[in-house]
Design brief:
This is Transketolase. Keywords: Thiamine pyrophosphate. The protein has one domain: Thiamin diphosphate (ThDP)-binding fold, Pyr/PP domains (Rossmann fold). The protein is 38% helix and 12% strand. The protein contains 10 helices and 7 strands. The protein has a 5-stranded parallel beta sheet, with helices on both faces. Strand 4 and strand 5 form a beta hairpin. Helix 1 runs antiparallel to helix 10, helix 3 crosses helix 9 and helix 5 packs parallel to helix 6.
């Protein structure tokens, strides 16, 4: 754990509590849908909370504010983990989450930018997010804006060729305002990432494409805060990739590291156990 951040302990504690909130609300919403993405949402909880409660500039009263930072989920199936945060910071009433996945609801398994305030881009097929981020960052350059584009991707997503085309483009266009965040939880829906199609060495690959690369513990809030606080300036020439070492199903012992919980449903006893473990966690 890093000790270099000057952020007050109260802010660090807030981010940790909001990460817990994201996990608890994920359980609640998936219990209504009877199926959902626990593992990949839990592995991103601290990343979500750090971005929305400390890093990004945005205005819930003006969701399309031109100068806002952008956030795109390549791994859009983890949207259930960010919906509660968007509601908590004021993009829409929390009560709307009670409609999750119901007929006519704006809130589906993947986010829809045309229906949900605070969502900057919709998702579906995995692998498009970084290309979208390249476009957003180029747009900022053309408009003389200094916002950043943050793109969250899964490690399995790096198996997609389009990711590396976008990575090459970002370096070519000198997009220092683009930040790729890799949630390296080491599992996919079909099994362990390394056994299906190995992606290592991740750091070396990003560096070979001309990126500034940082490897961190994706659950250590102090380290996340310090890393984002010390990003190169948005007007710099080199894009940054943050490789986050994470645990699928983080916070619930019987889910951790298991690809079986990438998408699943919890029974009543397991829901109770999972809630107790999350509430009792650090």
């Amino acid at each position: 754990m890093t000790e270099t951040t000057s952020i007050p302990k109260e802010k660090i504690d807030l981010i940790k509590e909001k990460a817990k909130m994201s996990r608890l609300e994920t359980i609640r919403m998936i219990s209504m849908a009877k199926s959902g993405h626990y593992g990949s949402s839990f592995s991103s909880s601290e990343i979500f909370a750090t971005l929305y409660y400390h890093v990004m500039n945005y205005d819930p009263e003006n969701p399309r504010w031109k100068s806002r930072d952008r956030f795109v989920m390549g791994k859009g199936h983890s949207a259930v983990g960010v919906y509660s945060i968007l509601a908590d910071v004021g993009f829409f009433p929390k009560e709307e989450l009670d409609t999750y996945t119901q007929l006519g609801s704006a809130f589906g398994d993947h986010p829809d930018m045309n229906k949900i305030k605070g969502i900057d881009f919709g998702s579906g097929s995995i692998g498009h997010g970084l290309s979208v981020g390249v476009g957003m960052s180029l747009g900022a350059r053309l408009d003389n804006e200094d916002y950043r584009s943050f793109i969250l991707m899964g490690d399995g997503e790096l198996q997609e060729g389009q990711v590396w085309e976008a990575a090459m483009s970002a370096a070519n266009f000198k997009l220092g305002n683009l930040v790729a965040i890799v949630d390296n939880n080491k599992v996919t829906v079909d099994g362990n990432t390394a056994e299906l199609m190995g992606i290592e060495p991740i750091k070396d690959k990003w560096e070979s494409f001309g990126w500034n690369v940082i490897e961190i513990d994706g659950h250590d809030v102090e380290t996340l805060v310090d890393t984002f606080d010390n990003l190169p300036a948005a007007d710099s020439d080199v894009p940054t990739a943050i490789i986050c070492d994470t645990v699928a199903g983080k916070g619930v012992s019987f889910m951790e590291h298991g690809y079986e919980w990438h998408v699943a449903n919890l029974g009543e006893d397991d829901i109770k156990r999972a809630i107790e473990e999350i509430e009792g966690g650090q």
